[in-house]
Amino acid sequence: MIKKFLDLGLQPLANSYIKEKDLNKRESKFRLEVMFNSKNYLVSINKKIATNKMFNSDYPYRSSQSNTMKNSFKKIAEEIKKRFKPEFIIEIGSNDGAFLFNFRRQKILGIEPCKNIAKITTKKKYKTIDEYWTKKLAKKITKKNKADLIYSANTLSHIKNLEETFGAINLALSKRGVLVMEGPSLLPCVKNNSYDQFYCEHVYVFSTISLINILKKYGLEIFDIKNLKTHGGSSRYFIKKISNIEIKKKKIVFQEIKKEKKYGLNRFKTFKNFAKRVNKSKKDLITILKKLKKNKKKVIGYGATAKSCTVLNFCKINSNQIDYFIDTTPDKVNKFLPGSKIFIKKYKKLQKNQVDVVFLGAWNFKDEIFKKEKLFRKKGGKFLTHVPKVRLI
Ligand code: TYD
Questions:
Q1: Nearest to 91, CA basis, from 20, 24, 141
Q2: Is 180 in the pocket of ligand 1 (CB under 6 A)?
Q3: Which domains does the chain have, with CATH numbers?
């Protein structure tokens, strides 16, 4: 049975940053509700938006905007080379090449449906197909040669049709092939009250126990897991075909299942409690912003993330509370955040004499950002975050 546990209110499309000339146009909005499936433990958003409305030639997100991610991709690329020695790799959701560029061109194929972004890697002579990942495409590209490694980071949970996602992977993968997939993980999301992991693109936030149930249907299983710090707590799953009995399951798989069940990721009640904490987080954030405003503090936002879209619209925050955001992404700069319509300025190092408090939209890159803005903090500048609790740092 699928039951709702969280209502995040009316939300626009998270990555639809608004140009000035379109400010008065009506934005399309949808009710963002989060559901739990008690049969397979899958957590998903209720409303699934048409893919081409989200992933098209205007897509602004760039993986290479953070050094944390660039380094993480470099590290896993080295590990993959050593551990699996693949001859033919497919990356699903290759974005601007942060992973792709770590391999020789002949060995790797990128799949990136956002044409504006696929162009970036194509220009660098990395073969990139600007189509959605489907069974049809998988068949076409692996007709002669199946992939011995498929990699996908922060992408598979964006595709609502599980049959297409994992059915296509099963088709494209060789008998002994390995799928390495990673993305934000449900346990840290629930533990840290990071409800902003839910937005239109994040159709699912996977847990190990839910993923096991899904993969089984497509003849796949997890044999190893690595928990990562990226994106506020991610899991990297190493997956093989069930029919391949040469690779043994690592102990960590059983440990993760035990850990998730102990926390209650298989129980609806856990998610109802999470929802209560989320509503408290909303109240606390509104209260603190009100107080700052009353004390005439200048508050801005750092990192105009898709996650911020959820927070701002759920808490009904606009430019009355947060003056503007700063961001390094060229396609976001000089636009407005969807829904809240807060302006996004080009990133400039924070100056204490210009700003008092900075809302961490990109809280998942807190360490990288704090390092960059050491001076601001040293001079008494404060950051405001809602993860894991609303507080000033
Ligand atoms: P991210 O947290 O990856 O994403 P999402 O949109 O999926 O919620 O996005 C990070 C954003 O923060 C991205 O727009 C780039 C920006 N950013 C900066 O402006 N400066 C920084 O130092 C870092 C690390 C990120």
A1: 141
A2: no
A3: 42-260 (3.40.50.150), 269-392 (3.40.50.720)
